[in-house]
Specification:
This protein is α/β, with parallel strands linked by helices and 403 residues long. It folds into 2 domains: 13-42 and 293-400, Alpha-Beta Complex (Aspartate Aminotransferase, domain 1), CATH 3.90.1150.10; 50-288, Aspartate Aminotransferase, domain 2 (3-Layer(aba) Sandwich). The chain has 13 helices and 14 strands. Strands 2-8-7-6-5-3-4 form a 7-stranded mixed beta sheet, sandwiched between helices. The chain has a 3-stranded antiparallel beta sheet with strand order 9-14-13. Strands 1-12 form a two-stranded parallel ribbon. β10 and β11 form a beta hairpin. α2 packs across α10. The protein starts with 17 loop residues before the first helix and ends with a helix.
Length: 403
């Protein structure tokens, strides 16, 4: 028998993300003939704006199909410059802006550029699964800061202050939040900023990818705008995936202090180099083009949120906080723990709940354990109202069957 050489030890620190694993399981069931409704992935079901698609085609026909600059094309960086000025009131020079292969690579570049092995990375919990996995891959030690449901899943300044130590190198903020949909208001963000002013050796990554998905008149202010004195330590991340339904185009971007941006561009150069040139043309068109359709999308998401909230409130054993933004709910399933499903499966934790719900009612959600807070599940409402209605009724039926 031929033995394979050993794989890198770092892989033991990076298991497959639970969101990807649950989505793959749902896909396998669907391919086997099951009528699965996947509420496990955060992907808009809208179409990419027509003018963005047209811009990509035009760029390809003009011959813009060569290697692009590692930090992004000038046209897209200028569009990003205008976007930050328009949406956040932030002004950045072009060499303070970079483009990545999706927001995820931008975050990975920042972690690899800022975090040495053993350094602490503070992450408010619940958190997007990839933050912790990427921080650990960089050799960092994750320090979660609990954002409990009774605080609306908001980050409290006093909790952040207690989490920061002399070993802290990076804080990751994500509002509106994945998985809870929570968003901190301007006063809360200013208080967070005051804490960080006391710790000049800490970088901050503000992931604002859901910045335009806010409801009920809620106003969100990103950290660099809430506390301008932190400008030289904050890198603000966004992209076109969520706002413009362009997940497959893989265009993320950020703006921040020149030394960190330069280091991130260098890191990206060793991994993937530049980003698809025609994708960048599409992203520039999306950022500079009409923005009026965003209000209609927000209204659609708000209706879906409220529909699913009503359905989940009718499920025995489940309670659910009403979020300010994004397109996720994070229902508390404490009332379902310690019981058995109709098919006899023991529900000892939220992972058991998610797996039993998928197997018995063919609804895919993601266990809260993956996001650093149990007993919860994340439910995406980035799908049609008809699908949400059916999924909600199945969840009610599943919970009614618990014994």
């Amino acid at each position: 028998m031929t033995l394979s050489p050993p794989l890198a030890e770092r892989l033991t620190r990076v298991p497959t993300a639970a969101t990807a694993a649950m989505t793959a399981r749902a896909r396998a069931l669907r391919e086997g003939g099951a009528d699965v409704i996947a509420l496990s992935i955060g992907e808009p079901d809208f179409t990419t704006p027509a003018h963005a698609i047209a811009a990509a085609e035009a760029a390809a026909r003009r011959g813009e199909t060569k290697y692009p600059p590692q930090d992004g094309t000038r046209a897209l960086k200028e569009a990003i410059q205008r976007k930050f000025r328009r949406d956040q009131g932030l002004d950045y020079a072009l060499d303070e802006i970079m483009v990545g292969n999706g927001g995820k690579q931008v975050i990975f570049d920042a972690l690899m550029a800022a975090v040495d092995p053993g350094a602490e990375v503070v992450i408010p919990a619940p958190y997007w699964v990839s933050y912790a996995l990427m921080a650990e891959l960089a050799g960092g030690r994750v320090v979660p800061v609990s954002c409990p449901e009774n605080a609306g899943f908001h980050l409290r300044a006093e909790d952040l202050a207690h989490a920061i130590t002399p070993r802290t190198r990076l804080l990751i903020l994500n509002f509106p939040n994945n998985p809870t949909g929570a968003a901190c208001g301007p006063e809360e963000m200013a208080a967070i900023g005051r804490v960080l002013l006391e710790h000049p050796d800490v970088w901050v990554l503000a992931d604002d990818i859901y910045e335009h998905l806010l409801y009920d008149g809620f106003r969100y202010v990103t950290l660099a705008a809430a506390e301008p004195r932190l400008r030289e330590r904050v890198v603000t991340v966004s992209g076109v995936s969520k706002t413009y339904a362009m997940t497959g185009w893989r265009i993320g971007f950020c703006a921040g202090p020149r030394p960190l941006i330069r280091a991130m561009v260098n890191m990206q150069g060793q991994a993937t180099a530049g980003v698809s040139s025609i994708g960048q043309a599409a992203a520039a068109a999306a950022l500079d083009g009409p923005q009026d359709f965003l209000a209609e999308q927000r209204a659609t998401y708000r209706r879906r949120r409220d529909l699913l909230l009503d359905l989940l409130s009718a499920a025995p054993g489940i309670t659910c906080h009403k979020p300010e933004g994004a397109f996720y709910l994070y229902p508390n399933i404490a009332g379902c723990i310690g019981r058995r499903s109709a098919a006899g499966r023991e529900i000892a934790n939220d992972t058991d709940f998610a797996l039993a719900l998928l197997e018995e009612q063919h609804v895919a959600v993601v266990q809260g354990a993956a996001f650093g807070m149990s007993p919860y599940v994340r439910v995406s409402y980035a799908t049609s109202e008809a699908a949400l209605e059916t999924a909600g009724q199945r969840i009610i039926r599943f919970c009614q069957g618990l014994r």
